[in-house]
Design goal:
This protein has about 280 residues and is of the alpha/beta class. The chain contains 8 helices and 13 strands.
Length: about 280
């Protein structure tokens, strides 16, 4: 099957230098009917031309958006602009039997995390209690609610815009009996020893306080902290050891450690999730 990149190169042949054609992206992820692109710096001046060509190839797409900078801040606002098509940023994205309403110009929702969302659905059990420290619009936790219908999900979000979409997505997916949302700074979370799983899905990494609060939130019988980070693979082992040391110092015994690569984010930098199976030490206060 001919790829989108190959079709795009054929359409743009003669309109762009071969050196620029060779740098066209290999991936064309979609959220709803919007395609999200990452272009090389020297291709940016041709973004509109490239975007309109993509719309001629991908019939389901209605708009093309290009990242123009790094996602920044605690609220993880993306730097992205529309270069072709209908530039309405509010899209409806469906994935894993879950419907998401998202403003892609103001909220981060990574198509590259779809594999992790699917893994979480497989990991969770119907009787589990889950606390999502960085819920956004339900990125990681809503597919768990719709597919596994666990006992309870506590969804924490600091960004009022993301929180409004979280509320809408809870309503759309009819999971208000499962998902309890909180508009709050997770540094002030104080409901402890309740969870089978705590999701720490923040990049480049949660801070130490958030990690320690996640440990306190797992059940006294034990639970799993899902810690996300962006890191070079060669120092991943050091990061795992650091987390285990922090857990031990906080009075928790790490029973099992796992990690998985979620996606690449930059040359030599990858998004990993580290899963710490931990429980309170018997002699801990």
């Amino acid at each position: 099957m001919v790829s989108i990149k190959e079709k795009l190169m054929e359409i743009l042949k003669g309109k762009l230098d071969n050196s620029i054609l060779s740098e066209l992206p290999s991936r064309y992820p979609m959220l709803g009917e919007a395609i999200l692109l990452r272009l090389k710096p020297r291709s940016m001046s041709y973004a509109s031309l490239i975007g309109n060509a993509i719309l001629n190839i991908v019939s389901k797409a209605k708009s093309v958006w290009v990242f123009v900078g790094k996602t920044y801040g605690v609220i993880r606002r993306p730097q992205i602009v529309c270069v072709a098509g209908d530039c309405n940023p509010i899209v409806t994205h469906k994935e894993l039997k879950t419907t998401f309403r998202i403003d892609i110009s103001r909220l981060t929702f990574s198509p590259g995390n779809s594999g992790e969302r699917a893994r979480l659905v497989e990991i969770m059990d119907k009787q589990d209690v889950i606390v999502d420290f960085f819920a956004c619009c339900g990125n990681l936790s809503l597919p768990i609610a719709t597919n596994k219908k666990p006992k309870k999900i506590y969804a924490l979000e600091i960004n009022s815009l993301a929180y409004s979409y979280l509320l809408e997505n809870i309503r759309i997916n009819r999971v208000s009996h499962i998902v309890q949302p909180f508009l709050m700074d997770n540094h002030y979370w104080n409901i402890f020893e309740i969870a089978d799983h705590v999701l720490l899905g923040f990049l480049p990494a949660p801070d130490r306080i958030q990690f320690e609060l996640a440990l306190k939130t797992i059940s006294a019988e034990g639970g799993i902290v899902h810690y996300h980070c962006v890191i070079r693979k060669e120092i991943l082992t050091d990061e795992i050891k650091r987390l285990e040391k922090l857990a031990n110092k906080a009075g928790y015994r790490v029973i099992k450690l796992e990690y998985q690569r979620v996606k690449g984010v930059a040359p030599k930098l990858d998004h990993f999730v580290i899963r710490l199976h931990a429980m309170i030490k018997e002699n801990a206060c």
